[in-house]
Design brief:
membrane, MFS transporter, 80% helix, globular, transmembrane, 0% strand, 459 residues, Growth Hormone, Chain: A, 22 helices, transport, mainly alpha
Length: 459
């Protein structure tokens, strides 16, 4: 699955077979929760950048505020709790995964209402704190959403890329469609008004959570087996203290120990480093894209039409195409091709910086960028899903995803300083972002060989 070999007669029908996978109702559930995962990036991402830019906040401060996304890089620290702790009442009513998602959506709703009442010019500190509340709640409910996707789709290897695609389509729908409406109406209703009606969007997302079905898994049985194993290893007595110690050990240690045990230390560390490095260049571009669009001369309406609305439609189409390609040719190969294409697409932005705000060039750039990003992201999410165990899916996926977020958020929060250090040379900035993919591709070659060797040894 990770690497497809020469086509056989049965593989010639993979294209039609891949499309037939989208008739599964579980993919609709994944799509709906994907919308909830993407929406917070509107609240504290592109919309906040536009609001702060219109309020006269400096580039460096806009870029620095993105440090609130760093919580995505450390959410694996508390991710084990979402595999093991059931919230009173709500988890009994909705189940473990939906209970956590619904509760954290409620926190996001309250923070969004508070944001609508905050003026960044007068109280940037309060706005930053509220942004941190949103990012912490969103990063935590993403743990449950990712685990939901992994658990409800199971180990069907033909469904994993399709599930990854629908998750991404949902994410971009939750991000781009509200983002388009926000930028299209920001000058009419004002940014405070935008955030007020965005609170309504959060309420709709909470309704989606009530509509989806909780997955049925053997998670608790697998966790119980781990508890018995650790109890024997630790010679724990059947007392309250002994049981608590075993529970804590299984909750905190076993999710990460299992990942390294299944992959081996060398491969596991290579995977973690690859995940950290792969999308840094894309993140540097993304953090400064709105600022760049405004400085180069594009209006809010143009940003809304091309970057948000058109970009959303293209991402949906290209993500579905990317999932079928990854089923046909393999996840690792798709990642390598996607990484090269993703880096090359960054050069389109350098072209804009040189040529100026031409609408036709803007549209062409959005088309190329969305195709490359969608193609590589499907393979990236599919790879992380395959590397995740089923007893502690929330913790293990969070470990991988948070490392990717560390590169995309913490390091890229200095993107504004880099532009300033280059004296506003946007063309050179985008060339540098294109080169940032090289270390990740080198690691991917090593990982692909190791995974292919493991598959052959099992055959």
């Amino acid at each position: 699955m990770l690497e497809q070999q020469t086509a056989t007669p049965s593989q010639r029908h993979r294209w039609l077979g891949a499309l037939s996978n989208y008739r599964d109702l579980r993919l609709l559930y994944i799509f709906l929760l994907g919308c909830s995962s993407g929406f917070p990036f509107v609240l504290i991402g592109s919309n906040l950048s536009g609001w702060l830019t219109d309020a006269g906040i400096s580039r460096s401060q806009v870029g620095l505020l993105y440090v609130v996304f760093a919580v995505y890089a450390v959410n694996f620290l508390w991710a084990p709790l979402l595999d093991r702790v059931r919230l009173p009442l709500v988890c009994r009513w909705l189940g473990l995964r939906r209970g956590w998602i619904f509760t954290l959506q409620g926190v996001i709703l309250l923070a969004t209402l508070a944001l609508s009442m905050t003026d960044p010019s007068d109280n940037l500190l309060l706005l930053s704190v509220l942004a941190l509340v949103v990012s912490t709640s969103a990063a935590t409910h993403d743990i449950a959403i990712d685990a939901y996707r992994i658990e409800i789709i199971g180990r069907d290897e033909r469904k994993v890329p399709a599930a990854s695609a629908m998750s991404i389509v949902g994410w971009w729908t939750g991000y781009s469609l509200p983002g388009y409406l926000a930028f299209a109406n920001a000058e009419t209703v004002g940014w405070a008004g935008v955030y007020l009606w965005m609170a309504v969007v959060v309420a709709v997302l909470m309704l989606f959570t009530l509509l989806v079905r909780e997955p049925n898994t053997d998670r608790q049985a697998l966790q119980r087996e781990a508890e018995l194993r650790y109890a024997g290893m630790m010679h724990a007595r059947n007392t309250g203290t002994g049981r608590a110690l075993v529970w804590l050990t299984v909750t905190v240690v076993e999710p990460f120990a299992d990942f390294f045990r299944r992959n081996g230390w060398r491969l596991a560390l290579s995977i973690l480093l690859f995940v950290f490095l792969f999308k840094i260049g894309e993140a540097f571009l993304g953090r400064m894209s709105i600022v760049f669009y405004r400085e180069v001369g594009y209006s809010n309406e143009q940003i809304a039409q091309y970057s948000k609305l058109v970009g959303w439609g293209l991402t949906i189409a290209f993500t579905l195409i990317g999932s079928t390609i990854n089923i046909r040719y393999g996840i690792v190969r798709g990642l390598f091709i996607g990484g090269i294409a993703m880096a090359a697409s960054n050069l389109m932005f350098a072209w804009i910086a040189v040529a100026g705000p031409k609408e036709s060039l803007f549209l062409a750039t959005i088309v190329v960028d969305n195709f490359c990003a969608a193609f590589s992201t499907v393979a990236f999410v599919s790879l992380l899903t395959w590397l995740t165990g089923r007893a502690f899916s929330g913790a293990q996926y969070a470990l991988l995803a948070s490392l990717g977020s560390l590169g995309r958020t913490s390091l890229s929060s200095g993107s504004g300083f880099l532009v300033d250090a280059l004296n506003g040379n946007w063309a050179l900035f985008f060339v540098l972002t294109a080169l940032m993919v090289i270390p990740g591709l080198v690691l991917l070659v090593f990982i692909g060989r190791k995974l292919r060797g493991a598959d052959e040894s099992k055959a």
